[in-house]
Amino acid sequence: MREARWAVLALAVCGCATRPITPPLEVPQTLVLSIPAIGTTIAPAQARPPIGSLIDIPVPDHHSIRAALDLFTSEMRSDIQQSLTRSARYKNLIDKVLDEYKLPKALAYLPVIESAYLPRLTSRAGAHGIWQFMPETAREYGLRVDWWVDERADPDRSTRAAAAYLKDLYRDFQDWPLALAAYNAGAGRIHRALVETGSNSFWRLMELSAIPRETRGYVPTFFAAILIANDAASYGFRSADPLTADVKRVEVEGPLSLRFIAQTAGIDEALLRELNPSLRHDIVPPGKIRIAIPASALASIEARAATLKNEDRIVTVCVYKIRKGDSITKLARSLHVARKTILAMNGLGAKAHLRRGESIYLPVRAHALAAGGM
User: Fold this and answer.
1) First to last CA, the chain
2) Which single residue of 38, 272, 327, 364 has CA 20 to 30 Å from 153?
3) What integer is the mean pLDDT of 274-285?
4) At what angle do helices 155-173 and 187-197 cross, to 10 degrees?
């Protein structure tokens, strides 16, 4: 039954939303029986409420979009509702960024099909965050991705990177379906398909099966998502009002564990992790960095910010000075950790050579390192 369900249509991006789905080569137009009519736009003057400013990308009347609506309003109803509910946490942020970049408001619901607004979601292909950036593209758009930090999971910074990327794609293709297809499959692949087929639209590429299966499902499901988000009640969904959390940012110096910060400030550790999803190991990286905390904890953290690093005996990272005879391989074996972990946390290449007196970070508590005689 589940395989048959996914054969109807797809969310289509690798690891997108909450389930892997594979789109079909073709969706019969007769699948949809009772979906509200789809026009090119919903004008404010129509009887349907102008929740309508949301649909600022023209929506074609295409059978694949109707099929996606059918799937979203039936078997995937619970998934879509959860995604819409979760979107409330990021709505104000995303709307503000889209406005700054002068992009359509409808793009605020692209994460419905990308990640279901789960900041730490990683696809099988390695895409990460609510906008599902691949590492190379993330770095190209200014996001930090290393052992310590993955800013693809930072809703603020990743949203700005996504806005810049989407704007570049639209500037390239001058067409939103093609730009969205390029966001999923890569601009080069879409350009090649257009040239090879002589086509000038996403819908023609879709009909010719000239682009990947997941991309053929990706664009229709986006349009289905914005139709539902624009008028949730008409499709049997509950809309969620945007949420505004009372969060402040404070500068601290790492390495420093979120657990110790939480204990120091008397706040919930899970909440602190949730507010800082880009910290990959729940550790503030070396150097000074601003972290998000509940506003109620601001005073207590600010008062001890300068000393927290020295007081933290929980953090599983310490500085080690290289001695004669040390090597990455020997240190890894001694600590029972992977060699690649030590390389990654120090930004070293596979053939890195250590110099005597050089300081590196090791994934172990300082007192445990001392107790081991190192």
Assistant:
1) 58
2) 364
3) 97
4) 20
Average the pLDDT over 222-235 and give the result: 95
Stated pTM of the model: 0.84
β-strand 318-321 against 283-294: which pairing, if any? unpaired
R_g of the chain, CA atoms, integer Å: 24
pLDDT in tens, 39-59: 333 222 233 334 445 689 999
**Residues 267 and 297 sit within 8 Å (Cβ to Cβ):** yes
Q: Would residue 245 be called left, alpha or beta, if left means φ above 0 and alpha means ψ between -120 and 50 degrees?
A: beta
Distance CA 27, CA 64 (A): 6
- CA dist 84 and 91 (Å) reads 10
Question: Mind telling me the catalytic residues?
Answer: 114
- Structural domains of the chain in order of their starting residue, each with its CATH number: 2-235 (1.10.530.10), 247-311 (3.10.350.10), 318-371 (3.10.350.10)
